[in-house]
Amino acid sequence: MTIPIKPIKPKRISDQVFDQIRELIFRGTLKPGDKLMTERELALAMNVSRTTIRDAIQRLVTMGMIVQKQGQGTFVKSIDIALENPLAKAMEAQNASLEDLLEVRMGLECNAAALASKRADESDITAMTQSIDEMQTEIESGRLGTEADTAFHMAIAYAAKNPLHILIMRNFYDYLFLGIGENLACLYEDPKNIQEILRQHKSILAAIKARDPYRAYTVMNEHINFVLNFFKDRKQ
Q1: Domain extents for the chain?
Q2: Rounded mean pLDDT of 197-219?
Q3: C-alpha span between 124 and 37 (Å, rounded)
Q4: Residue 45, Cα to own-chain centre: how many angstroms?
């Protein structure tokens, strides 16, 4: 019997640097407009050569994720959602509503939560926990906590270990919280809604930590349905 075994290809160091910086951007740890460390500082922090850092940075520039400004440094690119987000273009072309968007999000995120319950490692669990803690702190400080909310859902996307899902969800959240953030503000302005969303996040995390795919799928479904029904009720 022939077994379809493929040779293992070692991952280049510059690929690892690229992956780490891209992850920081996708997770929202590095935000649009944030300045990156210098090549020298990054090389020291990552224990690699400056050439390796330069290669990774150039790939991120080519992808449009960061921008280099002469004499100023390297920055996470500020996105013009209307021009650069493919989801924004699709929404406009199809005359789609926020409810349409949330229905699609339901399918994506319920599956992601189920996969995360099987694939999440300790760093993923830590990222989810930190996002919930940050959201709690934001709420107690009188802020909305939307960035922490985004970070929580992106942590689940990473825990699902599917690079395509990560990219799709990044576009979703860029559009939801940056492109049409004013439409979501009414949801977060009611303290009761914020507390309920926080409770739901904790239930999702508990299901993922318990390695229970069915429960993770179910509580994520309840969470997104809560948001979807809120907007449906407002239109009545």
Answers
A1: 13-76, 82-235
A2: 97
A3: 24
A4: 24
CATH tag for 13-76 (out of 2.120.10.80, 3.40.50.620, 1.10.10.10, 3.10.20.30)? 1.10.10.10
Cα 79 off chain centre by: 15
- HEC-encoded secondary structure of the chain: CCCCCCCCCCCCHHHHHHHHHHHHHHHCCCCCCCECCCHHHHHHHHCCCHHHHHHHHHHHHHCCCEEEECCCEEEECCCCHHHHCHHHHHHHHHCCCHHHHHHHHHHHHHHHHHHHHHHCCHHHHHHHHHHHHHHHHHHHCCCCCHHHHHHHHHHHHHHCCCHHHHHHHHHHHHHHHHHCHHHHHHHHHCHHHHHHHHHHHHHHHHHHHCCCHHHHHHHHHHHHHHHHHHHHHHHC
pTM of the model: 0.75
Instruction: Say yes or no to pLDDT of 144 above 50.
Output: yes
- Spatial contact of 157 and 128, defined as CB atoms under 8 Å apart: no
Encoded amino acid at 180, one letter = I
